[in-house]
Amino acid sequence: MVQNTLFKVSEVEIFYRPNYKVADRPKISGSKDAYNILMDHWDDGKLEFLEEFKILLLNRRNRVLGVVNISSGGISGTVADPKVIFAIALKACASGIILAHNHPSGETDPSQEDIAVTKKLREAGKLLDLQILDHLIISKHGYYSFCDEGI
User: Fold this and answer.
1) What is the mean pLDDT of each run of 10 residues along the chain (151 residues)?
2) Which one in 8, 13, 72, 104 has a CA-CA gap of 20 to 30 Å to 41?
3) Neighbours of 71 (CB within 10 A)
């Protein structure tokens, strides 16, 4: 005899509530625009102390939907979890993503790990039709743009 088994399943609800009109959102025309917005949202006290990873979410016209803190690590690294990044981007109906992290040393040159994670996220984004537009390495005195450098 087969018994009917009841499964307990959680309901998943997805919503995004922007609180600005599209015309009021800043538009990204280049890496300098992205850097300026990111610096406005970065805790100055942590910039040269802890490595953090953030993303800028953009619509099809490169208007900023939001800045999201993805992770905070130690002095030598942090995690850029693709599942977290893309779950947030999909929930916000983003069309493009700009990746960003800081190096507490103040050096902006990318490491081999930085290059590898950028490539990995770019490939994953292609499957989801979410374009990785750039990856910035941030410091108080400037930034490195993967896009500007052709990486």
Assistant:
1) 64 69 88 97 91 96 94 91 95 96 95 96 96 97 96 84
2) 13
3) 16
Domains of the chain, first to last = 26-145 (3.40.140.10)
Residue with tokens 């300026």: 36
Residue 72 dihedral angles phi and psi, to the nearest 5° = -130, 130
Amino acid at site 2 = V
Nearest to 35 by CA among 149, 141, 151: 141
Name the residue with tokens 């942590």.
46
Three-class SS string for 67-119? EEEEEECCCCCCCCCHHHHHHHHHHCCCCEEEEEEECCCCCCCCCHHHHHHHH
